[in-house]
Amino acid sequence: MALLILMPDRDSNDLAKALKKTSPGLDIRIWPEVGDEKDIKYAIVWNHPAGALRQYPNLKVIASYGAGVDHIFKDPDLPGNIIITRLVDDSLSRQMSEYIAGVVLNHRLRLTEYREYQAAGVWSPKAARPGNIVCLLGLGNIGREVAGYLSGLNFTIHGWSQSHKDIENIATFHGDAGLCEALGDADYIVCLLPLTPKTADILNKSLFSKIKKGAYLINAGRGGHLNEDDLLDALYQGRLGGACLDVFRTEPLPDDHPFWRHPKISITPHTASLTNIDQAASQFHENYLNMVNNRPLFNRIDSAKGY
Ligand code: NDP
Ligand code: OXD
Description:
By secondary structure, the protein is of the alpha/beta class.
């Protein structure tokens, strides 16, 4: 019985080392040096090639090397009847909270603007931007933590989710009917949704038509949430005052992409919140043992919902 690491664009050796530290006896195979394919029962994946998971006839569990699982579901040739899990950990939520707070405060305090004035030798004091309402699209493990962090900084939080939520100090909204109200008069719109057929392209012309004029967009969910042409249009029309994007339809962002040089767009290279290898290794190991001992696995995905 063996565990496979299948992450073509990540350093698999670091994860293998962390797993070995937790469990020296574990039989770990690093793709593409898989050995006997029949041995593989548990696969840790990130951006695996489509169809690759079909090759393991005894595969029982696919574990995402991150919080998101869209990279798994986009494989049209995924084997059926398999348990899919994802990472849920404090470190992911904490990093995201700091990232979102950093971006919001940077915009509110005009820090990037002053850097530009500095480059031009201009002394131009201005008051901080007044807006302090943040609308979080997604109130899951990460969204809820971000909400608490920002409300501790005295921001007013609106949160939107699929199902009804009751969270202290947050105005909550849910479902299609609640979206318009959640966006309402928000100064910052933050996407922390999973990418599913229902949320794909959600940051589009129709949503931008419902927001407060000049609001600031932060997308740390997935590139597939954003209609890129609609964003460019909304920035040009002034519907949006600016945007900070961490995730993109194509990553790395292609050299000739218009976002690179857009004066109202800030870019970070999918680093809002990075998987902590040691925490991940300990979760994978625990769930691997759950599988071996026929115990229920934690952080399972509901395949019908897609997250
Ligand atoms: P969760 O599954 O815990 O939460 C998802 C949230 O989105 C839930 O509140 C859910 O509602 C809501 N949601 C899902 N579908 C809809 C819908 N159709 N309409 C309204 N709300 C919806 O995920 P996490 O919080 O752990 O992670 C969220 C995403 O963040 C990940 O999927 C990933 O894409 C992204 N991410 C990005 C990172 C980065 O570095 N940029 C790092 C880590 C994650 P409900 O609660 O009712 O189910
Ligand atoms: C994740 C990510 O989903 O890093 O964990 O995007």
